[in-house]
Design brief:
alpha+beta, Ybab, Chain: A, 3 strands
């Protein structure tokens, strides 16, 4: 029984530590940048590490062609979002490094869209 209580206390301590680390990582991710582009750079989307869109740049030649713009925008947004998710995943891996939490690696893999361990 004492071993179970000790394990529970250890997990509570790890959860508190993770909460504190998560706050600082979130603040750090807000300063990171990721850019997605399409159409050979004619459309660029910049996001931060938490996925907030910071800017969108569209070449003047694309503005004249609505269909092209509608084709290029989603691709640029998706690319920027994927890069932002990778920044987030990398930060989460460093935060949890050394913590023994069952299922954590699988959960992080699912969040990033990667394969899970079997």
């Amino acid at each position: 029984m004492f071993k179970q209580i000790s394990n529970l206390m250890s997990m509570v301590g790890q959860a508190r530590e993770m909460g504190s680390k998560m706050n600082s990582i979130t603040e750090e991710l807000k300063t990171k940048r990721a850019v997605g582009s399409s159409g050979g750079g004619m459309v660029e989307v910049e996001v931060n590490g938490v996925g907030d869109v910071l800017s969108v740049r569209v070449d003047d030649t694309v503005l004249a062609d609505k269909e092209m713009l509608l084709d290029l925008l989603p691709s640029a947004f998706n690319q920027a979002t994927a890069k932002s998710k990778q920044l987030h995943m990398d930060a989460m891996k460093t935060m949890t490094d050394g913590m023994d939490i069952p299922g954590l690696e699988d959960a992080l893999s699912q969040f990033s869209g990667g394969p899970t361990k079997t």
